[in-house]
Design the sequence.
């Protein structure tokens, strides 16, 4: 089992339902929600509109684009309707986005539009692997851009690309993540992936650290190297996980689905579209792969399920128990998220669980620390231990 | 087509993908999110833990409870795995909740537990009808309670029942919603539904307005009337929509799934469970049925997609356009959500759209209102129109 699944299951973040299908338990949902909140915030800075499409998919629009056939798309989940006919479970949503936009886009004045959702995708993978990095059911942020000209499309594309870099930076994987040239499609020579260097990955990429870019092995050849002005010997082979991707689609979907607009001359023209994905649960898995040690997980501040893990020792001894409860309430009142461990267990067990769960700041209250009028504060990442008064700790957390 | 679907589609809140399958467009997602936020807040006051289970369901636990068979549960969506075998799409989640809890409940000291999720359910309905009131794919809040004794179970049950009343009150359907006796199961004579009186409903209930309770037609007989101390002639027949339900399950699911705990005497005993559902999208549909007139929707404040619909007339005339944009920014800075209509259309069209969309407060800025140093403020519900200065309006909105 992949390290991320092993640690996340042991620490109570996720529960395996079937191969490649994981539920998120309270701790896990908190991390996932933190990741989602950062992505949503950045989508909104783009002026993108959030909507929510369905999982059940009408075959019609997919037949128009040629993607309904299992010989074309081999990872559909399909299901029969009691009322007759069948439906698919969306593995992506281009076709239905086009169909919806058809009702809202008439004129060049209606463009550009950016629309996104954070919604569950289903992919009938032959093999599920790498824990929550590649699953059969997963949350995805998918953004779609709709433009009236190449120029407008490229401006949107570059803007989103910039915001993606900000997102990965905020999520704590910025320095490990490279914009990567990958295979394009009929409408552009390349697509861009965002690849995070990580041994649990399935992709092989060639990285130029200095230029902060990479090339996916699947497109690496002399022509590509010449295109990008790179030399093979400047590149280092690494294993990576694709945490995001951005595609130029041109009229690949707008044309078969009839998404057109009237230009300034009154002529009907297909809209130019782009699609931009990020997998929040996949990023959670990558974070565990990158931020963990032999004792457990080490969450980056931005996504940690709680800021503070408050451990009360000497449960049953009224003094330390009361103090821990009072300090727990103080932290909550100050808006600092805190997990209280007041279980009646040995200190060693509680410390081991705390290291496994990986909340950034561990605070221990015991008879001994209280005698000094202090609490013991340990940084999960550096291991540094300090004795602080409650006021000092509160100051350092804000 | 049901009134709720007709109005919500016309006003751009939802998009019909297939019969009984609706996407939520930006306006619709805002309303749905407001409803969800209220429900989540109240679940958290119960001290319930939020988690997120999967849509794809492993057949195993359902076979144990006897609910996998299509002859027992006729509205499963099922799908084949490429890797072999099949999976269901969860229409509810008792079985997997039991399986997860099995790993976390060992002793009486681990109980009680309340756990909930706000997640998508799939039901292969023979007929989809009533717009978004009965659909094949829908968001549901499902809460489960786990107790060690009848007494503990009943305390939880009553507590949740109380919180349900608060939720419906906050959502603006309190006075139309009745706790309703409905058929129980093997473990309790009755279950409780929360039925909102509404012509679009599918249920027939007998209401006692004074006592604020109702009886579902399906259980109305002399024995039930005697049980509840009601007389047939005190009851009025009404059509209603079930917006919530609460079930006592006893050991119906814990026993076949092996969810037990060690009691104080060290004996292994099955956990007593309860299940508590609310359908946020269904409530959105009911709100439209109840709060609308011939011109469109009239959202209650608590769930409205925006607080203010700011309509700028005289687009192109720089003075009113600039003023509307400046006031738009002011409202946002004050944390007042606002939808700006700066389209270049006739006033009449913009007013008709505003009535259709149903945001509580309509604010018009035009050359004429600006001459008076005022804005025109119209209450969507009462129709009352007032001329206010910007400062007066801001004061009235806070």
Sequence:
């Amino acid at each position: 089992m992949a390290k991320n699944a092993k640690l996340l299951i042991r620490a109570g973040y996720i529960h395996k339902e079937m191969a490649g299908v994981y539920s998120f338990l309270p701790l896990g949902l908190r991390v996932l929600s933190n990741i989602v909140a950062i992505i949503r915030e950045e989508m909104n800075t783009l002026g993108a509109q959030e909507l929510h499409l369905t999982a059940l998919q009408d075959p019609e629009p997919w037949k128009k684009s040629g993607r309904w056939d299992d010989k074309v798309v081999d990872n559909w989940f399909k299901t029969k309707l009691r009322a007759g006919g069948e439906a698919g479970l969306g593995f992506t949503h281009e076709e239905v986005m086009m169909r919806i936009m058809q009702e809202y886009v008439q004129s060049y004045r209606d463009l550009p539009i950016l629309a996104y959702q954070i919604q569950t995708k289903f992919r009938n993978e032959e093999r599920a692997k790498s824990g929550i990095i590649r699953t059969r059911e997963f949350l995805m942020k998918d953004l779609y851009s709709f433009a009236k000209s190449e120029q407008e499309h490229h401006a949107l594309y570059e803007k989103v690309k910039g915001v993606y870099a900000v997102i990965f930076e905020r999520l704590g994987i910025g320095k490990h993540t490279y914009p990567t040239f990958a295979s394009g499609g009929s409408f552009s020579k390349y697509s861009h992936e965002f690849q995070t260097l990580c041994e649990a990955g399935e992709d092989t990429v060639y990285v130029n650290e200095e230029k902060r870019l990479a090339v996916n092995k699947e497109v690496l050849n002399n022509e590509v190297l010449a295109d990008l002005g790179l030399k093979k010997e400047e590149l280092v082979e690494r294993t990576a996980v694709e945490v995001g991707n951005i595609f130029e689609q041109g009229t690949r979907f707008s044309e078969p689905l009839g998404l057109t607009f009237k230009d300034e001359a009154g002529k009907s023209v297909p809209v130019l579209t782009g699609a931009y994905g990020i997998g929040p649960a996949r990023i959670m898995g990558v974070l565990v792969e990158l931020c963990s040690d032999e004792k457990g997980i080490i969450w980056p501040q931005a996504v940690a399920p709680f800021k503070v893990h408050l451990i009360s020792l000497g449960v049953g001894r009224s003094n330390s128990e009361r103090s821990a409860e009072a300090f727990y309430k103080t932290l909550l009142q100050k808006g600092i998220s805190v997990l209280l461990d007041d279980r009646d267990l040995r200190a060693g067990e509680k410390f081991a669980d705390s290291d496994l769960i990986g909340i950034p700041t561990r605070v221990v209250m015991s008879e001994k620390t209280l005698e000094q009028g202090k609490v013991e504060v340990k940084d999960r990442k550096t291991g540094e231990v300090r004795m602080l008064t409650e006021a000092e700790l509160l100051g350092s957390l804000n």
